[in-house]
Design a protein that fits this description.
Blueprint lengths: L29 E3 L3 E6 L5 E8 L1 E5 L4 E5 L2 E4 L4 H5 L2 E2 L4 E4 L2 E5 L3 H4 L3 E4 L3
Parallel strand pairs: 1-3, 4-10
Antiparallel strand pairs: 1-7, 2-3, 4-5, 6-8, 8-9, 9-10
Length: 120
């Protein structure tokens, strides 16, 4: 919706308030640490699983998939302050025993960590 006033000087009025299902919830940040999950009831008596903390990532090099432990969050392209706080997001580059790995999924939505090996 446009902010301010119309060219004629009139106000822009909001058509309606947001409904309960349209309101965004509190943002989840996945931190580096021992695994901790949370489940939430959703519409239609379904449940969602959220990851709050995690330290194991599924790493693929194109052929083989292995589980690796995350040592450190190296870089987060979307926000450099998230890497300093060891917060894992999609696109974050983390350090493992096999080298640097890019997180390819959304851990706050899916409840697990998946990564692809990055050669640098």
């Amino acid at each position: 919706m446009k902010q301010g006033k119309k060219a004629s000087g009139g106000k822009y009025k909001k058509p309606r308030k947001k409904k309960l299902f349209e309101i965004a919830g509190q943002k989840n940040n996945v931190k580096l640490g021992d695994e901790k999950r949370k489940t939430k009831a959703t519409r239609g008596k379904n449940k969602k699983s959220f990851l709050l903390q995690g330290k194991i990532v599924n790493v693929t090099d194109g052929k083989k998939i292995t589980k690796q432990e995350i040592k450190n969050v190296f870089q987060t392209p979307s926000n450099r302050f998230l890497a300093r706080q060891n917060i894992i997001t999609k696109g974050a580059i983390v350090e493992t025993a096999s080298g640097k790995v890019r997180i390819t999924n959304r851990p706050t939505k899916e409840g697990n960590l998946n990564g692809v090996a990055v050669k640098e």
